[in-house]
Every structure is written in C-alpha cells, then in structure tokens.
C-alpha cells in the first residue's frame, strides 16, 4: 500500500511506501536485538572498558593490573562486611550493658521476671545440680532505639558496602571472563581471610 502527499503548485510530491517504512523499522529493531544478544555472552577481549572508556586496557600488562584491582576490590568488600559485623556486635554488647544498669526506685530484674504472668517456673539441671529458674519468652521483636553515635555511622558503612558491591556487579556485567574470575577470586580470598567474622546472610 502507498500513499501520496500532494503539495502546492511548484512543490514536489512525496511518495512513501508503508511496506518500505515497516521494513526499515524491522531491520533497525533486529539489528539492535542482535547487538544486545552479542553483549550477553562471555568474551575474552583484553580491551574491555571498565567503568569508563578511559579505563580500557591496551596491553596485557594493563589488563592484568585491572584484574588485580578487581581482586583487591572484592577482598575489600568482604573486609567491609566483616568489619560491619564486628561493629554491630560491639554496639549490641554496649546496648545490653546499658540495659541492665540499676537505678533507684526501679524493681530489680529478678523480681520483674518472677512477677511476670508469662514467666514459667522450670528446673535447670547442669552437672547434677538442680536449680529453679523462671523462663520468660519474648513474643515481639524489640526495636533498638535510634542513637546519634551509632546510626549515622551504620548508614555510612552500608552506603560504602553497597557502592563497592555495585562496582563489582558492573565489572561482572561487562561479561569479560578475566574480570568475572577476578571478582570470584577476590571473594574467595576475602572469605578465607575474614569470612568467620561476617554475619550469616551477608553477601
């Protein structure tokens, strides 16, 4: 199907074929899809940009240096996770110590537990010695209060950890085999070094 646009006297008429226009659009879309599919496979090109076109290894030595940088960055990511876990444990210990400070006019914790209607009297046996204890189950999660000395530092640490994680993710998304293996090697080395300090569930 074709259509003709008639112009005024002295102007040339323009004729456009719908089939040709559709064919051009299909060709552009197929070309972009094929280009996108090419980016979704692993490749081993040394001259793979990292984070910017200015950071493109032009030699084997530059490529090796880039891979070493990614290994170190992945190790730093594991160190940050371990450091955050250690700091969180210290903050929790400090919070627990602050919670049990005795104050005048306050009922001792032992009396509060004995008078709690949810307390259940049980017998604790250890190495042949029996002792009567009261067990109170906590049904609701307790939210720790916001503290100026803790929460801003936690927010900064989380931001740095997420930023480093996204940098590693962008390196993997280049689909370069060397970059991908370097990130995995850094995670392996970092986990071997400080993995025991990281909390369960950290990635």
UniProtKB/TrEMBL annotation:
Topology term for the membrane: Multi-pass membrane protein
Main location per the UniProt record: membrane
Transmembrane intervals: 61-81, 155-173, 179-197
Source organism, top-level taxon: Eukaryota
GO molecular function: copper ion transmembrane transporter activity
UniProt key word Transport: yes
InterPro entries xref list: Cop_transporter (IPR007274)
Keywords: Copper, Copper transport, Ion transport, Membrane, Transmembrane, Transmembrane helix, Transport
Location of this chain's protein in the cell: Membrane
GO cellular component: plasma membrane
Protein family membership: Belongs to the copper transporter (Ctr) (TC 1.A.56) family. SLC31A subfamily.
PANTHER family, sorted: HIGH-AFFINITY COPPER TRANSPORTER CTRA2, SOLUTE CARRIER FAMILY 31 COPPER TRANSPORTERS
Protein's name according to its UniProt entry: Copper transport protein
Annotated source species: Moelleriella libera RCEF 2490
